[in-house]
Amino acid sequence: MLARLLALLLCALLTACASRAPRRAESTPRQSAGTSGIDDDVSRPQSQRYRKAGDGGPDGPAIDVSKIPEPVPRAEPRSRYGNKERYEVLGKSYRVMNDARGYVERGIASWYGNKFHGYLTSSFEKYDMYAFSAAHKTLPLPSYARVTNLDNGKSVIVRVNDRGPFHDNRLIDLSYAAAVKIGVWPKGTGVVEVRAIDPSQSGDAGSTTASASPANEKPVGSAKPPAIGAAAALDSKSSAIGHARIYLQLGAFGERANAERSLAQAQRAGLADVSIATATVEGRSIHRVRLGPLADAAAADAMSRRIERLGLGTPRVAIEN
């Protein structure tokens, strides 16, 4: 009798379990009524992102970015995440700026899209490839900047909420939508000016009185990049449209003799089109050994790899009129 009772009880339990429909684990966010298709209640497992070998644009039809509103700069508290004073990636150290005001820099922009769509950014916000956002190595999170394509004059205001890009010779990673807006997509890269916006200032959201700084002067940033003198200052946002040139800086020296030794070393290694450019920085003469101009970002990448193989260190991109 006891055995029969136990058997009946076990049967009842199995029947009850079988009658419950199993919960289906959602591997992707549910589509919402908004543009992005990111559901705030669902997170994408990070492991899924690495199943994709490469990045890309939307899986469906192309979008009309002209219908996407640009973010309105406003004062925001610093994010709890992504603002560590100093951090290290791939052996390089970076220092997050205390204040974005006055920041202006020129360099090469890249973009990121569907591979990262829906995953968390460094500030623990979900990345939305259809929003005007960006990743930067040292700007505070969040902050706002106007990014201008120096080849065509197109610009967009972006909200910086992520860290990167950590590819050598890249200044900023634009969201897919921002890259389309200014013509960096589908080419992949573009020569840009990144100009921080102070939400407390009235008038044009892209205006600032600061001078430009040398692109990627050091891996470790500072609160405000140094000015490079009136000769290279940015007089207007359109001053170099269609005339931006890419150089690779091999070194910067206070003593002319040191710059000449670096120049001779590069020439002995077989590098052509290497010269010394002298500029005044805070009343001091700085002698920069540079190679170029180069045709585009791809040429700069190839030459950077060659310079590294020659044992001459990692060059830095410099953009000039």
How does this model look, in words?
The strands form three sheets. The protein has a six-stranded mixed barrel with strand order 3-7-4-6-5-8. The protein has a four-stranded antiparallel beta sheet with strand order 10-11-9-12. A two-stranded antiparallel sheet has the order 1-2. Helices cover 17% and strands 25% of the residues. The radius of gyration is 25 Å and the shape is globular. The protein has helices spanning 2-19, 46-49, 176-182, 256-268, 297-309; strands at 86-89, 92-95, 104-112, 133-136, 143-149, 155-162, 172-175, 190-197, 245-253, 274-281, 284-294, 316-320. Mean pLDDT is 78; it is low at 8-35 and 204-240. It has five helices and twelve strands.
Q: Structural class of the secondary structure composition?
A: alpha+beta
Which strand-content bin applies to the residues?
Answer: 25-35%
Give Rg in angstroms: 25 Å
Q: How many E-type strands?
A: 12
Principal-axis shape: globular
Roughly how many Å apart are the termini? Answer: 96 Å
Label this structure with key terms.
single chain, 321 residues, alpha+beta, 6-stranded mixed β-barrel, 4-stranded antiparallel β-sheet, 25% strand
Question: What's the helix and strand layout?
Answer:
Elements: H1 2-19, H2 46-49, E1 86-89, E2 92-95, E3 104-112, E4 133-136, E5 143-149, E6 155-162, E7 172-175, H3 176-182, E8 190-197, E9 245-253, H4 256-268, E10 274-281, E11 284-294, H5 297-309, E12 316-320
Parallel strand pairs: 3-7, 4-6
Antiparallel strand pairs: 1-2, 3-8, 4-7, 5-6, 5-8, 9-11, 9-12, 10-11
